Amino acid sequence: MDDRDIRAALDRHWAASDANDLEAEHRIYREDAVLDYPQSGERIRGRRGILASRAAQPNAKRFTVRRIVGAGGLWVTEFVLTYDGRPSYAVSIMEFRDGQVAHETQYFADPFAPGPSRAQWVERMS
Questions:
Q1: 34 neighbors 43 (Cβ within 8 angstroms)
Q2: What whole-number distance in Å separates Cα of residue 104 and Cα of residue 43?
Q3: Alpha-carbon Rg of the chain, whole angstroms?
Q4: What gap in Å lies between CA 11 and CA 6, rounded to an integer?
Q5: Are the beta carbons of 44 and 58 closer than 8 angstroms?
Q6: Domains, the chain, ranges and CATH?
Q7: Buried b (16+ CB within 10 A) or exposed e, 29-44
Q8: Disulfide-capable partner of 102 in 63, 97, 108, 114 (CB 3.0 to 4.6 Å)?
């Protein structure tokens, strides 16, 4: 797969994630893929385990991709994952092998109030 093919696979993956199409969402992963959540200390092994763990998640969720950057075997997606109407800003780092994700690490950050000490230099983002 070249970079255009991987980018197209990522676009399909995130669109399927947003549509809650679990089968299509997980086609991007190798059978032996590993998913890490460093903030909670969790590691999930195997495409089936990753899919099952996400299928068991009870919250209504939406995905809004902000940007995707990468080349070769390393790709990063910045996105907003909204659980039951509450946004969480996230980064997914995907390592590809043979055209599929071999390892993914996801980081999450909740929104926070702006700091008053930097207000004079800040413009608000939408």
A1: yes
A2: 10
A3: 16
A4: 9
A5: no
A6: 3-106 (3.10.450.50)
A7: bbeebbbbeeeeeeeb
A8: 97
Output the 3-class SS for the chain: CCHHHHHHHHHHHHHHHHCCCHHHHHHHEEEEEEEEECCCCEEEECHHHHHHHHHCCCCCEEEEEEEEEEECCEEEEEEEEEECCEEEEEEEEEEEECCEEEEEEEEEECCCCCCHHHHHHCCCCC
Which two three-digit tokens encode residue 5? Answer: 């093919």
Please state the pTM of the whole predicted model: 0.91
Q: How many residues appear in the chain?
A: 126
